[in-house]
Predict the structure.
Amino acid sequence: MQHLHLILALAQDGSLRAAAESLNVTQPALTKSLRQLEEELGAALVLRSPKGVRLTHAGELLAARAASAIRELNRAREEVAWQQRHSAAGVALCVSPSAAIVVLPGALARLRARWPQVQVRVVDAVYPRSLTALRAGEVDLAVGPMPAQETAVDLRVQRLFDARQVLIVRPGHPLAGATTLAELQHAAWIVTGPAGGPGDPCHLHLEQRGLNSSPIRYTCESFSTLLALLPSLDAVAIAPAPFYKQHAAPCGLIQLPIANALPIVSVHAFWRAEAPLTAPASHLLDALAQEAGGVCYGVI
């Protein structure tokens, strides 16, 4: 553990003196520990210069693993305390906009009713940032659509719910009465989330239908921003049907009566296969699954 904290302190502070101070040890003692660690691994871990030290490639690899190991040990301490005394414990998750709108509020209410002492940190993130944070051990769970290009061999995956996509516009939009995708081939679009994600019109396959690709004029990362922007824009947005029903319709936005079949988005929960979920994370996963299964979010 001392060696793990040592390499992380060097990575963060960039000097032997600063690292020694942050670890509350003398600089000679730190230098000795560093030399022992380099001898054990058979590799140089830092490069020294008049400006301080920086990690070698081997040092960077070790620092990344050290950070993950320390997080896992901290989680283990939390879980032992939880099992012994049901003391306060925390869980962190990345959540996509659709999951945040549809299942997260109810899942947190379920968790709070049964386990009020659990502290929850919610990170708004979409693919690929959500799974990057998950793999780095920064969060316990990630919740969002399954990316088409993601094999997820190092992750466990649980399907939560399906939701049909709908197209929405502001009241008075010139295309408010459109009934076919062909009428939208020259429309401006506002995309929620990443390019290629569920909110991108590329999933409508306009080109395969013999239509021109529509221009993307605006992008945003959250549905709250979409609700703020769309009423003042002549743009079309793609959103899950539950979001439209619960939030967009009450704001006065209009669902286009498109006769064409629109994509269905499947939202999943992800966690790391090699690291067992902590008790609080497992309880939150159960709450998410119960919330997703308790309401019909399917083909609507």
Q: What stands out?
A: The chain has a mean pLDDT of 85. The domain at 163-264 is CATH 3.40.190.10 (D-Maltodextrin-Binding Protein; domain 2). The chain has ten helices and eleven strands.
